[in-house]
Amino acid sequence: MEHVTQKNASLIQAGFCYGNVEHAHYEKQGYCLFKTFLTPEGLAACLANVERMIERIPQGHTPEELYSPHVLGERWLWELATEEKVLDMVEKQVGPNIVLWSTHLLCKPPLTGIDVPWHQDAPYWNITGKLAPAVWIPLDDIDDDNGAMSVLPGWHTKGVLKRRVDEGRLFFDEIDPDVLPADLDERKVPYHLQAGQMALHDTMIPHNSVPNRSNRWRRVMILRYMDAAGKAGEKLLKDYRTGNDFPRVGYLVRGADVMNRGWKQSPF
After folding, report:
1. Which residues fall within 8 angstroms of residue 85, CB to CB, at 6 or more apart?
2. In a domain, 14, yes or no
3. Would you state the pLDDT for residue 114?
């Protein structure tokens, strides 16, 4: 199967809007959900490309995490991540100088996955500076049966929360349950989204997810950005096709390299 692209056509619906109301909700609650994002054609193209990539995974390896495919030649994902509407949204969050530092595909096949405990993302990343929220795009309808994620509204402002190590878990580093609210189940907001919709969440908001207990897939694309004045420390990622390491790379996708960090312009 070859790359599926939509040359000269936006992957994002004309009705998508990230305005003052949406931005205010994001700032206060730490997340925002959007019923309108990918066009039907854009969704079909993204899904076809992800299916093609999964077919390339060597036998015996799982497709659960595919790191920064745009660095590995997936131009379609680069084109989505650099769409004007996406960058306009990110600019409201980090300002005019924008670096794309990660694209990430999370793919839970049917009847797979683990309970991922409550955690915050940013403490693990070796990145400093202003971070945009994760742009979280489902390619399948998502509910509790096939691995929904949940966020804890308003808790993105509480700083780095106390963590504990539970060696009995595969994902063993989690927020200490003692610092989470007693009514957590009532407060949390699950991402029950349809394919092609979108969510934003702050890099410090506590979130968790459940296994895929269904016979359906749960495939999600995540785009991550930062202010070009920030710093990204060294980090190695795994090539999903070979298992070999490759370095994380940030690309200046709008504005200027204001601190002369040496950001690259494009992987192509």
Report:
1. 10, 12, 16, 18
2. no
3. 83
Nearest of 162, 254, 157, 170 to residue 202 by alpha carbon: 157
Number of compact structural domains in the chain: 1
In a domain, 63, yes or no: yes
User: Where is 238: in which H helix or E strand?
Assistant: strand 236-238
The residue type of 172 is F
pTM: 0.94
Range of the domain at 211: 29-159+187-254
Q: How many angstroms separate the CA atoms of 103 and 78, rounded?
A: 8
Tally of CA atoms within 13 A in the half-sphere of 140 that contains its CB: 23
Q: Which two tokens stand for residue 71?
A: 């660095």
**How much is the average pLDDT of 115-120?**
92
Q: For residue range 202-225, what is the model confidence (pLDDT) as tens digits?
A: 999 999 999 999 999 999 999 999
Is-contact 256 228, C-beta < 8 A?
Answer: yes
pLDDT in tens, 124-169: 899 999 999 999 999 999 999 999 999 999 999 999 999 988 665 5
Two tokens at 23? Answer: 């931005």
Q: Is 87 inside any structural domain?
A: yes
Cα–Cα distance for residue pair 170/251, rounded to 1 Å: 32
Closest among 35, 30, 36, 32 to 22, alpha carbons compared = 32
Cα atoms in the 13 Å half-sphere on the side-chain side of 3:
13
Buried b (16+ CB within 10 A) or exposed e, 116-151: bbbbbbeeebebeeebbbbbbbbbbebbeebbbbbb
Whether 91 is covered by a domain: the verdict is yes
Whether 251 contacts 80, CB under 8 Å: no
- CATH of residue 104: 2.60.120.620
